[in-house]
């Protein structure tokens, strides 16, 4: 069953917002209808939950059929949520704790997107929900005459309640390119027509995540006002000369200037400094910004990188359950906590409709109230913990739970996890020690910010480059809840430890380590000066498991009925440190956010002999690559700084949706022996 994705809404009649005026797309549409005007429907498009959190979240630019929009910050989402008596929440305490570490202890909940399914295609139920968005960029170009101007020069049309794709901006009296230039037969007498206007494609961005409209008027006049008109008429025409960029022309004074002058290192010197603008928040950075700006296209893939974390929801331990219940009580009682703390009986009556504490004794309830009343984490403590925090901290509880043997053939749990034990196939390669069939799982993903130009881990987690999702510190953030299936393979730890010790002294590993040093120096932010690059380099066992996971995804995609892009990896790989036991395992899973689960094709591969055959075949195919011998012998040498070895798109690299590390830290030589190398784990 396919579920209609959540809608994205904008205000059709109010696209240029005055300063400090709240964004309320659906309210604007209702006001237009009440005034008796022709109905402008606020809904302009739709997107799947996974795309709205990983590709088109707040601050990103979403390309609709006729124009582009930018989802607004979380402040504006609250006006949408207030249209409902209750706000749904996604329960994932471990993930919520990490979000609080990133955004502050004031975060109380994870929320899904504001959406509900309609019972039929003609129903308007749920039409009062949607993700609010602003039109951005707000300079448009007429497709008929190349007129370039801000939104007031164009008319907005969106009158069909069931055809959001027909929403558009139009140039009401377009006479075409010939008339605009005053050439051609009868150019001056051509009657006007309505032509669609599309987004002007250039933007200015800076390393701290600000984005702004390109100043076309100042650009064509080289920083000066037009000598002939206070509001000059501009046009954007395409040029096939040089680097094939656009040319901006002023009809009022006939000045012209090509956009190719803004490209490259020399072009940056001609661009204005950053103004610190955050269009998704309708604000500017109070502290200002004087960074250099870069020219970027509207559809550039490096315009928006989501900063997210995810967890596989596992059953809670007793201690985790107590902490979770205390936290829920603290949030529910809020300012009333001190008043109720002295009287547990009143607490039971107060929480009766929201939190089930019927099985909690009075003594336990008093302890819960004491925990709920404990001081929240201080800001200095939060920042200190944030600096030491690693994504591995999210994986450790999952790994520890996966070490337990399931209670039955199909052990189901209220958390949404169902595990089954599988014996090893007769031909399973030595080194794989254990297999679990993950019949059901629930994965929760939370968004806590974003970056531009480069990913968060590529700028060394520099706080100033993480763009906020709200004007003030948010009390919630958006999350998605995925359900699916998978297969878990655990490696033999003694074998992995022995292999890892041998690899650590090899020339190939030293080459990868030095390449990582060069990569760090070349690409990371200024905070790299105080961080040892070796702390960010995954150990050899991670390279082994990561490469093995990619090979397995390719092999499974040929057997399970899902495409390789639908499969994703979750790598459990770290050496033992302190009280943290070593880990070496891979979870290959597929999940979907808009259905109750998947079809069972992947978990069916966990059958012993079938899985053994898939693993054998994947390892056999890895021995040959169509780019060999170049691929098989690829080793980074100074000044090269790439973070992979014998791996390419022909043999081991996977799609962005499958890989958790953007196809870095891969080398087939660590998995199997290749010509000229005997470092493979599987002999």
Automatic annotation (TrEMBL):
Domain MrfA-like Zn-binding: 548-651
Top-rank taxon, per record: Bacteria
InterPro entries per UniProt: DrmB, MZB
A Pfam family matched in the record: MZB
Comp. bias regions, Basic and acidic residues: 28-38
Stretches the record annotates as Disordered: 22-41
Stored NCBIfam families: DrmB_fam
Protein name in UniProt: MrfA-like Zn-binding domain-containing protein
């Amino acid at each position: 069953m396919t579920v209609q994705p959540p809608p994205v809404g904008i205000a059709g009649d109010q696209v240029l917002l005055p300063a400090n005026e709240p964004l309320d797309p659906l309210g604007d549409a209702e006001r237009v209808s009440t005034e008796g005007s022709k109905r402008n429907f606020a809904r302009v498009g739709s997107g799947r939950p996974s795309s709205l959190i990983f590709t088109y979240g707040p601050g990103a630019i979403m390309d609709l059929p006729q124009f582009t929009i930018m989802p607004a910050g979380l402040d504006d989402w609250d006006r949408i949520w207030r249209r409902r008596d209750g706000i749904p929440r996604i329960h994932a305490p471990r993930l919520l704790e990490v979000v609080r570490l990133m955004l502050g202890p004031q975060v109380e909940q994870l929320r899904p997107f504001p959406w509900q399914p309609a019972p039929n295609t003609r129903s308007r139920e749920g039409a009062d929900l949607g993700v609010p968005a602003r039109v951005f960029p707000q300079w448009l170009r007429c497709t008929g005459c190349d007129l370039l101007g801000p939104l007031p020069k164009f008319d907005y049309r969106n009158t069909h309640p069931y055809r959001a794709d027909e929403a558009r901006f139009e140039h009401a009296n377009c006479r075409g390119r010939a008339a605009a230039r005053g050439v051609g037969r009868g150019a001056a007498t051509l009657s006007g027509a309505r032509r669609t206007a599309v987004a002007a494609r250039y933007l200015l961005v800076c390393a701290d995540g600000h984005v702004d409209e390109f100043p076309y008027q100042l650009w064509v006049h080289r920083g000066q006002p037009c000598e002939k008109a206070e509001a000059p008429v501009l046009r954007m025409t395409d040029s096939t000369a040089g680097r094939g960029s656009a040319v901006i022309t002023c009809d009022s004074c006939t000045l012209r200037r090509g956009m190719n002058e803004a490209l490259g290192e020399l072009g940056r010197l001609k661009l204005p400094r950053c103004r610190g603008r955050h269009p998704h928040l309708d604000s500017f950075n109070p502290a200002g910004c004087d960074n250099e700006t870069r020219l970027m296209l509207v559809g550039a893939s490096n315009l928006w990188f989501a900063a997210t974390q995810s967890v596989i929801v596992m059953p809670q331990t007793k201690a985790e359950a107590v902490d979770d219940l205390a936290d829920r009580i603290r949030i529910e009682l809020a300012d009333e906590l001190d008043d109720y703390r002295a009287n547990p009986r009143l607490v039971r009556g107060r929480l009766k409709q929201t939190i089930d504490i019927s099985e909690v004794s009075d003594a336990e309830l008093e302890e819960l109230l004491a925990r709920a009343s404990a001081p929240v984490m201080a800001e200095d403590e939060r920042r200190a913990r944030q600096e030491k925090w690693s994504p591995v901290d999210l994986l450790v509880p999952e790994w520890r739970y996966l070490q337990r043997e399931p209670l039955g053939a199909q052990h189901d749990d209220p958390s949404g996890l169902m595990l089954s034990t599988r014996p090893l196939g007769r031909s399973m390669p030595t080194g794989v020690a254990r297999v679990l069939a993950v019949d059901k799982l629930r994965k929760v993903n939370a968004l806590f910010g974003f970056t531009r130009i480069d990913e968060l881990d590529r700028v060394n987690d520099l706080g100033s480059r993480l763009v906020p999702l709200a004007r003030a510190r948010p009390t919630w953030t958006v999350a998605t809840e995925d359900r699916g299936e998978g297969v878990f393979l655990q490696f033999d730890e003694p074998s992995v430890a022995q292999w890892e010790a041998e690899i650590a002294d090899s020339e190939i590993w030293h080459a990868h380590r030095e390449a990582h040093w060069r990569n760090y120096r070349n690409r990371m932010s200024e905070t790299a000066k105080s961080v040892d690059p070796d702390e960010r380099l995954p150990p050899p066992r991670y390279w082994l498991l990561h490469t093995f996971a990619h090979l397995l995804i390719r092999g499974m995609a040929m057997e399970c009925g899902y495409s390789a892009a639908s499969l994703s990896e979750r790598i459990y790989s770290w050496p033992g440190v302190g009280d943290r036991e070593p880990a070496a395992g891979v979870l290959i899973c597929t999940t979907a956010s808009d259905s109750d689960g998947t079809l069972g094709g992947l978990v069916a591969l966990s059958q012993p002999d079938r899985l053994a055959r898939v693993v054998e075949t994947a390892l056999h195919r890895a021995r040959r690559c169509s780019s060999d011998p170049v691929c098989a012998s690829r080793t980074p040498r100074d000044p090269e700084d790439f973070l992979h070895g014998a791996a390419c798109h022909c043999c081991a690299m996977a799609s962005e949706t499958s890989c958790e590390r953007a196809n870095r830290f891969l080398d087939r030589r660590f998995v199997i022996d290749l010509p000229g190398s005997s470092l493979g784990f599987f002999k």
